[in-house]
Design a protein that fits this description.
The chain is about 80% helix and about 0% strand. The chain is an all-alpha fold. The two termini are about 25 Å apart.
Length: about 80
């Protein structure tokens, strides 16, 4: 394959980089979309995902929002399928 044909593919971001970009965009433009941001941080294997998860889980638990706790756990439960995709 010619280098000129390969170049566009080599410059494409990895899946993790794509998730990082989305998480950053969400943080800057949709700061209330915390669960969506958590999903993308976790998919990017960003250490901030753990901090955000713990913060959001504790807040949900303090409100006795068991559905909210379940939603957060479900987000992380999806991660193994992302890793094998």
């Amino acid at each position: 394959m010619r280098e000129s044909a390969r170049a566009p593919y080599l410059s494409q971001p990895s899946a993790a980089q794509g998730h990082e970009r989305i998480a950053k965009w969400l943080e800057e433009n949709r700061p209330t979309e915390l669960r969506e941001r958590l999903y993308h941080l976790a998919a990017a294997l960003d250490p901030k995902a753990q901090e955000l998860f713990e913060q959001q889980f504790q807040a949900a638990e303090d409100r006795f929002d068991l559905a909210g706790c379940w939603d957060l756990l479900a987000i992380l439960n999806e991660m193994p399928s992302l890793m094998t995709a």
